Amino acid sequence: MDDELIQLRGVDKRFGRKVVLDCINLSIPEQKITGIIGASGEGKTTILKMIIGFYKPNKGDVLYSKRTIKNDLKNIKKIFGFATEDGSFHERLTVYENLIHFGRLHHIKKSEIKKRAEKLMDLVGLREAKDRLARDLSMGMKKRLDVAISLIHNPKVLIMDEPTADLDPLLRDNMLKLIKRINSNGTTIILTTQLLGEMDRICDKIAILFERKIIDEGEPNKIKSKYNAQDLDGVFNRIFSKKTKPEDKIKTMERQIEQELKEEEIENEELD
Amino acid sequence: MKSLISIVGKNMKIISRSKLSTFFVLLAPLLIVFLVGTAFNSNSLSNIKLGVYSAEYNELSNSIVTNLGGKQFVVQKMNSEQECINSVKAMTIHACIIFPKNMSIEKNNESIVLHIDNSRINIAYILINDINSKISEKGSELGMSMASDLLKALQQAKSSLPSQEEQINSALSDISEIQSETSAIASQISSIDSAITSINSGLSSTNDSSVESDLTSIKTKLESLKLGLSGGTSAIESKSQSGETSLTKVSEEIGKLIQNISKITISTPENIVMPIKTEINSISKDSTNWKNLFPTLTALIVLLSSIILSASLVLDERRAKANFRNFMTPTSDLSFILGTYVTCMIILFAQMVLLFLGTILLTNLEVYSVLPQIALILFLSSSAFIFLGMFIGYVFKSDETTILATISVASLLIFFSNTILPTESIAGDFKYVAMYNPLFITDLLIKKTILFNAAIQSLIPEMLVLLGGMLLFLVLTLFGRKITKRKA
User: Most buried among A30, A56, B310, B447, using CB within 10 Å?
Assistant: First the structure.
């Protein structure tokens, strides 16, 4: 337990009256790759955004190095990097300009930013696209740009939301290799994906999010043997079929879609 | 500071990489202003359609109708009074003028009736004034002719009366001579009496019957002469006295008349028709319509550019994929706000430079001496409007609501300033609220500076109000960002 870097303790999250996460308990080990598995709309992204303090829990606490993050948001921003599912950068800036811009927003020295930008472009394989506008990049390149920007301030923890979504198998493979490479530098990685085979390949720890709760967590092999499954897809199928009757499965799927829509609706209402 | 520069640089790159947005952001407001400025660079209304009707036109009414026609008014004769009024209601004509049947200046109770649509408040009074002045021109023309005749008659009387008075005086002196002659004749009558007395004594002393008969005949004749003379002189005396009295009275009246006429100093018909003249002097020297319009147009550019640009920049920032990453950086909210603010200021500065350069080159507007004041006013007002726009951008999320809110706020500011209607026409306490409208203050300050070369010290109270507005909107913007930044 000593290597636990991040802890979620009894975390609840509601959007309006809708409960999205219910008493989440989760530990993230340092310098490891932790994957959060869950069906679409289960609240995986919400967990990630709570870890960095973007969403505040309605109940419970998120701890980093045993200290609550809500009182230390400024430092947390230096510690965490976040690669989003859709990419979070300026479409009308070039690859290089994006890296420099976000480096400056992280208060890094100009000379240092340039060095890091060059290094990161090599790491993610975007050297050739240095002067191309972000909007002109392919989906895979955009994902890699987002990862590069997330690493510009040398974060201790890199959070990746669906890093392999919308990528073809070759690009997916490249992305997984990249994640491994980043982790090999000592960066703690938390990621979510719906492609469970990938989790099996790269994750040191798996957490299973089902019906608003973390129902299991541990090393992939242990989880697989616990559920007597050959791979994580098998684990997921067992959990899904064991917990729900066929008609409930449809209801669960409907609920997930409904929840996703409501989540979006609530957010929009709050904004307007 | 470095992050602020980076945000500004990023904003400028993003704006400059879209040619269309660069055009709209930088040149469109200026283009609009030059078009508006050129189109409205006239002091009077033009192409105003007037309907006229009279049951029977005559020379006078026709001459007024002719006088109305010209560059400013297009006159159309209507078939009936009702048709004329209905055309005003249908807005096919601006005003309807009804002339009396066989209009005549002798009939005092006749008047020309003007039907006007008062709901068009922005031109109704200008129209009334312009039509009235056109009709008055004819009235004055007629008045001048009558006054001229009057003055001529008076002048004639003034020149002929003294000679009449002289003639009367000469007649009076003649009467006086007659009277003295009559007195002489009366004194002569007593000598006839003494002659008669001598004849009487002669009669008593003579015995000669023929002498006596002659003397008696002479005496009779003398007595008859005396009687005739006495009667004649008394009649002359009485007539001459009454004639003298009458002529004296006439002479006195003529004297008074001459005195009164000489008291009349009016020598020209204009003095009778328009005894009081008004002269309008503009207190802003060498003022042209463009120069008068320029402060308001500048204030409008500052308002619209600042509020729309800042609101759209904030909205773009909030909707951008990169917004979430902004949250992930330790850069403060204030830096992001100032980044957008400085970006807007740079663009506005460029717009103002273009506007002033263009205006100076095209219209010879002299603003060099007041440039520091102008710069300070524009800095304060654009800051206030930028923060207001940013606040709107933070509070509303969708394009539609933000645009609607921006237009509503801008319209509200425009309506509660002197731009469309005078603030004096605003009812009740709203009038006092309007005094704190940043647009109203900006317009006022630029006018004072450009038209009257006001010193900076005299502008301080209004500038403080602008500064207050700027700080208030900055606080609101910070608050708006705080409450919405997690809702990207």
Answer: B310
pLDDT band (50, 70, 90) for residue B338 = very high
Q: What is the pLDDT of residues A147-178, one digit of tens each?
A: 889 888 888 998 988 888 777 777 788 888 88
**Beta-carbon separation of A133 and B6 below 8 A:** no
Question: Are the C-beta atoms of residues B3 and B331 closer than 8 Å to each other?
Answer: yes
- What average pLDDT does this structure show over B245-251? 88
Give the pLDDT mean for B294-321: 86
A contacts of B14 (beta carbons < 8 Å): 90, 92-93
pLDDT of residue A196: 78
ipTM (interface predicted TM): 0.79
Q: Give the single-character DSSP code of A133.
A: B
Chain B residue closest to A266 (CA)? B487
Structural domain contains residue A105: yes
A107–B331 CB contact, under 8 Å: yes
Residue B39 CA, chain-centre distance (Å), reads: 23
Secondary structure tally for chain A: helices H, strands E = 10, 10
- Residue whose structure tokens are 């400024």: A74
Name chain B contacts of A91, Cβ cutoff 8 Å: 320-321
Which of A70, A97, A102, A272 should be substituted to probe chain B, the one whose Cβ sees the most B Cβ atoms within 10 Å? A102
> Residue A1: its pLDDT value, please?
46
Q: In terms of residue numbers, what domain contains A184?
A: 4-41+57-271
Which residue in chain A is spatially nearest to B2 when comparing CA positions?
A104
Q: Do B13 and A97 touch (CB under 8 A)?
A: yes
Residue A28 located in a structural domain: yes
Decide if pLDDT at B159 tops 90: no
Cα torsion angle, A100, A103, A104, A109, sign: negative
pLDDT per residue as tens digits for the range B252-268:
888 888 888 888 877 78
Q: Report if residue A256 sits inside a domain.
A: yes
CA distances from B20 to A135, B17, B194, B317, B349 (A): 17, 9, 138, 18, 19
Question: pTM here?
Answer: 0.71
> What pLDDT, on the 0 to 100 scale, is given for residue B433?
79
φ, ψ at A15 (rounded to 5°): -110, 105
Min Cα–Cα distance to chain A from B9, Å: 9
Q: Among all residues of chain A, which has the CA nearest to that of B484? A: A271
Residue B145's closest CA among B46, B273, B245, B45?
Answer: B273
**Could you tell me which residues come within 8 angstroms of residue B223 by beta carbon, excluding any fewer than 6 positions away?**
B196
| CATH number, domain with residue A22 | 3.40.50.300
Question: Do B6 and A86 make contact, defined as CB atoms within 8 angstroms?
Answer: no
- Taking the CA of residue A185 and the nearest CA in chain B, the distance in Å comes to 21
> Which residues of B touch chain A, with CB atoms under 8 Å apart?
2-3, 5-7, 9-10, 13-14, 17-18, 320-331, 396-398, 401, 484, 486-487
Q: Count the domains in chain A.
A: 1
Smallest CA–CA separation between A188 and chain B, in Å? 17
Within 10 A of B49 (CB to CB), how many other CB atoms are there?
A: 15
B314 vs B481: CA distance, rounded Å: 10
Q: At residue A254, does pLDDT exceed 60?
A: yes
Distance in Å, alpha carbon of A23 to nearest chain B alpha carbon: 22
**pLDDT category, B16, cuts 50, 70, 90?**
confident
Summarised one tens digit per residue, pLDDT across range B72-131 is 788 888 999 999 999 888 888 888 888 888 887 776 667 888 888 877 766 667 767 777
pLDDT tens digits, B138-154: 778 888 888 888 888 88
Minimum CA–CA partner of A150 in chain B:
B325
| CA of B456 vs chain A CAs: smallest distance (Å) | 40
Closest C-alpha to A207, from A14, A32, A12: A32
On whether the CB atoms of residues B470 and B325 are closer than 8 A, the answer is: no
By the 10 Å C-beta count (0-12 exposed, 13-18 middle, 19+ buried), B370 is classed as buried
